Amino acid sequence: MQAPTIYRLFGDKDGLLDAVAEHVMATYVAAKASIVDAASADDVDPIDDLRAGWQMQIDFGIANPTLSALLSDPGRALRSPAAQSGRHILQARVHRVALTGRLRVSEQLAVDLIRAAGTGAVLTLLSTPPEQRDPDLTDDLFDAVLRRIVTDAPDLPDCGPVASAVALRAIVPRLDMLSNAERNLLAEWLDRAIDAL
User: Fold this and answer.
1) What are the respective helix, strand and coil percentages of the chain, to the nearest 5?
2) Looking at the predicted structure, is the pLDDT value of residue 12 above 90?
3) Contacts of 169 by beta carbon, 8 Å cutoff, 6+ apart
4) Which of 75, 58, 50 is closest to 126 using CA atoms?
5) Residue 24 contacts by C-beta under 8 Å, 6 or more apart in sequence?
6) What's the angle, vertex CA 172, arms to CA 171 and CA 175, rounded to 5?
7) Could you tell me the CA-to-CA distances from 54 to 61, 110, 111 in Å, in that order?
8) Closest CA relative to residue 62, chosen from 14, 128, 143, 141
């Protein structure tokens, strides 16, 4: 393919890089989505599924350093439909944890903490020579995030008011006996309660 064709199709070098990154990321996210669907169908423990997703993301980031560097640019990540789909998959995983009553923070905060820690872990490992990388870094970091976002006890009565409120917030959209206005109001109250507790 000659240069004028590339410019016509992609605009410039950044456009070509974005297209390549999008293709690789879309393929990865499609595989990840099928794993999440299977975990949900097989009733895999949501925490175990979250850990598996974390490790898969770390492995992918290390195996694709150029893509990781490209998508660490917030502008590129926001323009990438595949990156946004990946975020939706993480949101689904976190939502499954919320449904069990084990989430001690809002779903949004949990997603943000996991994404921030994961991006930081990948960039830290990539900026460290392979022979100097701490093999326990990513596990230790994920455990630290888990301690912040989930409760120890799986039973709702022992989880405290925050976990109960987060669990109820997770099912608000399915409360068909309420009107849309009532569901929106309940969601607003629960969001405020979760933030205040």
Assistant:
1) 80, 0, 20
2) no
3) 98, 106, 107, 187, 190, 191, 194
4) 58
5) 64, 67
6) 95
7) 11, 13, 11
8) 128
| Beta partners for residue 150, in sequence order | 103
CA distances from 52 to 46, 47, 84, 117, 129 (A): 10, 9, 19, 15, 25
Token pair 């009565």 in the structure block, residue = 157
- Residue pair 103/94 in contact (Cβ under 8 Å)? The answer is yes
Which amino acid, residue 60? F
Report the alpha-carbon distance of residue 114 to residue 129 in Å, rounded: 24
Highest mean pLDDT among 2-11, 37-46, 147-156, 179-188: 179-188
HSE value, Cβ hemisphere, 13 Å, CA-based, for 115? 20
For residues 103 and 149, the answer to whether their CB atoms sit within 8 Å is yes
Spatial separation of the C-alpha atoms in residues 183 and 159, rounded to whole Å? 24
> What SS3 class is residue 150?
strand
* pLDDT given for residue 124 in this prediction: 95
Supply the pLDDT for residue 147. 94
Tokens 């789909």 sit at which residue? 85
Which tokens sit at 119?
A: 């991006």
Averaged over 69-90, what is the pLDDT?
81
- SS3 call for 103: strand
